[in-house]
Every structure is written in structure tokens, then in C-alpha cells.
Design a protein that fits this description.
532 residues; two-stranded antiparallel sheet; 21 helices; 2 strands; 80% helix
């Protein structure tokens, strides 16, 4: 039974490798093999190669300084972070708030086997990430210092210590996330916020990592003495990899006790967590008048609700809502500094800085593509929209309108701040506001047209039309290509007409194309949408 439950848990984790949610059927053996090869390329080639390079960077200098223990402390810490954050979401969904809890508990299956299978699943997932750090770490150290039986034994014990520690920490983090999620009313915005914070933290660490490593290698002895004095337990942990069997046995005993404690606590608390429904607030009905919405307002409200209810939708198709104002603030503060430098460096292309700034704003607008998957997201419920006494054009107008509003408002703020900060004449400042706004209109209508022409309605997971559909790819990268063409044409010959005339021509072109595409949506596009 335990084996069957573990197999089920692992299949759920790697379901995408065997099952095509887009086509709602199992993948072919060739496709499964290709996905498995891709997985190993990412895990072994990309992650493993990255940590192999880092091991070569750290190992030699630290060994020369007599700081072998710090090498294992740093690499072990990275392994723990990668293992925990790589498996914490799986811990949250599989260990505590799995969707099949009710089904499994209704069967004659002992709770200890359900908990055991899920803990093993979490352990294997954490270990999968852990080994991408530990194998390069051990290989490089043994190459530099030589192989001995004691080192191999201690490295093996270090692997078990770290893997069990990752299991314990992942379980605690998963429990924390599960407890919080039961009390949160609107989980979509919280999910988006946490994801964005993680992305920001990742890139901050990525860009600061080189500086941190250089500083560490220069002051290794100083940092080592501080760790030995203030956090001596970390020093003892680092000694495990160097072959200190006493430290290895001591940490093994402590971590084993922690895992046993978690196992016992999980058995006692699993039923309470698995059957929890969250905090339900009782509200007293109060009669009140509801203001009647217009047809467009009602359809727009429906599209907005769909957008804000899905973290995947917001993260993949609405990132520009935050990035456009952020860019506007940056340009407001820095544009007067870098724009003259760009114009001076490219003096043979007069006032090209304004063109580049305008292109940047349009590129950020292209990151908002709410309309592109909007038709596909109707899925099997498309008949509901078609059964309502509304014209197909009204539904399409709402889909385009959502993107126009959610992109246009940030763009208006961002472009105004950019115009204020730009070192340019008044005419260029006006066009810096006008052209990006017209581009927002153009891209929204274009994305809606693509949504009608390239729908996917047979999906079983919303991530398929949002992230894996050809329509969304074409909408985003097509807009990027247009932005690149806009800049390239100016660099080749557009500068001859002057940047103001050039930007005005493109603004008019975007406006005319928007009108043409809107007329198509109102006629042929509406007919195609109604025939889906």
C-alpha cells in the first residue's frame, strides 16, 4: 500500500511529463522520453553545472587558507536553501492540503501510510534538488584533497543529515504556509505577491552573489573566527565534510530525533489539518440596492473577476501593471542623466534616446497580454457566453477593454513620469505619452484578434492556454518584434525625418491599424467567435 501511495504521489508531481493537459491524453513514448531528457538536462546540466563551477571557485582558495569547513558550510547552506524552496510548494499541496485527502481518508487506508507516503514524497523531492549541489561539492573537494575512507563515510552521513534536515524544514515551512492559507480570504493576490517577492529576492541575490563571494574569499579568516565564536555549531557542521566522524555522528543523532518528532506530530495532527476548511465568517444578510450595470460594464466585471481569481493569469499576463510605473519612476529620476549620454554616444542618429525610451515603454506594455488567452479560458463554458442575449462583439470588446484599462492606466502614469524626466523638447514629451498609449490600444485589439483566431478550448489545466498556447506566444513576442522593428527602422533611415515626425507616423499607423482590427472584430471576428 505504501508503495502504491508513493507511486501516486510521484506521478502527480511529474504528471506533466506523461500527460498532455493541452490535448487531454497521455503523451507518446517518444514525447515522454524527450521530456525526461529535458528534465535531466535542466537538473544535471544547468543546476549541476552551475554548482560545479561554484565549487571550483570556492574550494581551492578556502582549502589553501585552511578553511575546508567553511567550504562545506557554504555549499551545505546552499543545498538546504535549494532543497527547501524547491520542495516547499510540493510539501504544502501534497503533505497538508492535498485535494485527495477526503478520498483517501474514506478508504480503509491507515493514516500512518498516507502520512508516510507523503513524507517520502517530500523527502525524495528535496533530495532531488539537494544532490545537484552535494555531488559537485564532494567531487571537487575529493579531487583537491584526495580520497579516504573516513571522508567518504562522513560525506555519506552529511548527505543523510542534510536530506533529513531539508525534510524537517520543508515540513515546517509547508505547515506554516498551510496554516496561513486557511486564514487568507483572497489567496490569488497573496500568491502573486509572494511569487514577485521571491523573483525580486532571487535576482537580487544573483547580482550580489559575485560581490559576496569575492568579499568572503578576501576576508575568509576574519569571518571564520567570528563564526567559531558566535555560531560554533556552524563550525562543527562544516567539519563533517572534512572527515570529522564525531561531529558527523552527533549531527546524525540530532537530525534523526527531529525527523522522528515530526513523524509523531504529523500522525497526531494530520486529521485536523487535512479536514480543515478554513475560517468561515458568518455574515448577516442585509437588504440593499444593487446598482444596475451596463452591458459592457457587466462583461468587463466578469473578465476582471476571472483575471484576479487566477495567480497564473495575473503573473503570466499582467506583470506589466507593476513594471510600467516602476520604469516611469526610474525614467523620472534618471532620464536626464542617461538620455544625453545616449544621444552623445550615437550622435549620427539624432535624438535616438527618445526612440529607445519609447520602445522600452512599449516593450513593457507587451508584457500585458490578458486578452490573448481570454477566449481560450472560456473553455467548456464558452456556451454560457453564447447563450446570453448579448452580441459576440460585446464579449470581445470586454476582453480587449480589460487589457486596455489594466495597461492604459499604468502606462499613462509611467509615460507622464517619463516625459517629465526626459531631456527632450515639448513635442517629444507629448509623443512620449501619446505613442505608448496608442500602442496599448493597438496591442489589446491585436491580442483579442489572435485570441479569436487561435483558441484552445479542450484544456484541463488553465496553465495550458495561459502559458503554453501559440496564441499567447505570438501575442507577446509579436509585439516585441514590432517594437524592435520600430527602433531598427529609425536607426537605419527614420532618423532622416527626425524623431518627432517618425514617432508621429508610427502613432498614426498604430491608430489606423487599431481601427481596422476593431472593425474586423465587430464583423468577421464576432462571427468566428460565435461559431466556436
Amino acid at each position: 500500500m505504501l508503495r502504491t501511495l508513493l507511486k501516486k504521489q510521484l506521478f502527480e508531481v511529474f504528471k506533466g511529463y506523461f500527460y498532455d493537459a493541452k490535448k487531454n491524453k497521455m503523451r507518446s513514448p517518444l514525447a515522454i522520453g524527450a521530456w525526461i531528457v529535458f528534465f535531466f538536462v535542466i537538473m544535471v546540466g544547468l543546476l549541476g553545472g552551475m554548482f560545479l563551477a561554484l565549487s571550483f571557485t570556492l574550494c581551492g582558495p578556502l582549502i589553501s587558507a585552511g578553511m575546508d569547513w567553511m567550504y562545506f558550510l557554504m555549499m551545505g547552506g546552499m543545498a538546504i536553501l535549494l532543497g527547501c524552496f524547491g520542495s516547499v510548494y510540493n510539501t504544502y499541496t501534497a503533505l497538508y492540503l492535498a485535494k485527495d485527502n477526503d478520498l483517501l481518508l474514506s478508504m480503509p487506508i491507515p493514516v500512518r501510510k498516507i502520512v508516510g507516503a507523503r513524507l517520502l514524497n517530500v523527502y525524495l523531492m528535496g533530495t532531488m534538488y539537494l544532490v545537484t549541489v552535494m555531488i559537485p561539492m564532494d567531487i571537487v573537494y575529493l579531487m583537491d584533497t584526495g580520497v579516504s575512507v573516513m571522508k567518504l563515510i562522513c560525506m555519506l552521513l552529511l548527505f543523510f543529515i542534510l536530506s533529513f534536515f531539508v525534510l524537517a524544514l520543508s515540513s515546517l515551512l509547508g505547515l506554516f504556509v498551510a496554516k496561513i492559507s486557511l486564514k487568507i480570504k483572497n489567496k490569488s493576490f497573496v500568491t502573486v505577491a509572494v511569487t514577485l517577492l521571491f523573483i525580486v529576492g532571487y535576482y537580487f541575490f544573483y547580482f550580489k552573489a559575485g560581490i559576496f563571494i569575492r568579499d568572503l574569499l578576501l576576508h575568509a579568516q576574519e569571518y571564520g573566527e567570528k563564526i567559531k565564536g558566535v555560531a560554533h555549531v556552524l563550525y562543527l557542521f562544516g567539519l563533517i565534510g572534512t572527515g570529522d566522524i564525531v561531529c558527523a555522528i552527533g549531527f546524525t543523532v540530532v537530525v534523526s530525533a527531529v525527523v522522528i518528532f515530526i513523524w509523531m506530530r504529523m500522525l497526531k495532527s494530520f486529521m485536523a489539518i487535512a479536514t480543515a476548511t478554513g475560517k468561515v465568517k458568518t455574515q448577516r444578510y442585509v437588504e440593499k440596492k444593487v446598482k444596475e450595470k451596463s452591458l459592457f460594464g457587466a462583461m468587463l466585471s466578469k473578465e476582471l473577476t476571472r483575471f484576479t481569481s487566477s495567480p497564473n493569469y495575473m503573473l503570466n499576463c499582467g506583470l506589466g501593471i507593476l513594471l510600467i510605473p516602476a520604469a516611469g519612476v526610474y525614467f523620472l529620476l534618471e532620464a536626464k542623466e542617461f538620455m544625453p549620454l545616449i544621444n552623445e554616444a550615437m550622435a549620427d542618429r539624432p535624438q535616438c534616446a527618445t526612440i529607445l525610451v519609447c520602445m522600452a515603454l512599449c516593450l513593457l506594455a507587451s508584457m500585458n497580454s490578458m486578452a490573448a488567452p481570454s477566449v481560450s479560458l472560456e473553455g467548456k463554458n464558452l456556451w454560457i457566453s453564447r447563450s446570453l442575449p448579448i452580441k459576440p462583439w460585446a464579449s470581445l470588446a470586454a476582453k480587449a477593454g480589460l487589457q486596455i484599462i489594466l495597461t492604459g492606466i499604468p502606462m499613462l502614469l509611467g509615460s507622464i513620469m517619463t516625459a517629465i524626466g526626459a531631456d527632450a523638447p515639448l513635442g517629444e514629451k507629448v509623443l512620449l505619452v501619446l505613442m505608448p498609449m496608442v500602442f496599448v490600444l493597438f496591442s489589446a485589439i491585436l491580442d483579442t484578434m489572435i485570441a479569436v483566431k487561435m483558441p484552445i478550448l479542450s484544456w484541463t489545466n488553465e496553465i495550458e492556454p495561459i502559458k503554453h498556447s501559440g496564441g499567447v506566444f505570438l501575442a507577446m513576442f509579436g509585439s516585441w518584434v514590432i517594437c524592435v522593428i520600430f527602433t531598427a527602422c529609425y536607426m537605419f533611415f527614420g532618423y532622416l525625418a527626425g524623431n518627432m515626425v517618425y514617432m508621429l507616423i508610427w502613432t498614426v499607423a498604430f491608430a489606423v491599424l487599431s481601427i481596422v482590427m476593431a472593425l474586423w472584430l465587430n464583423s468577421s471576428g464576432a462571427k468566428e467567435f460565435a461559431a466556436l
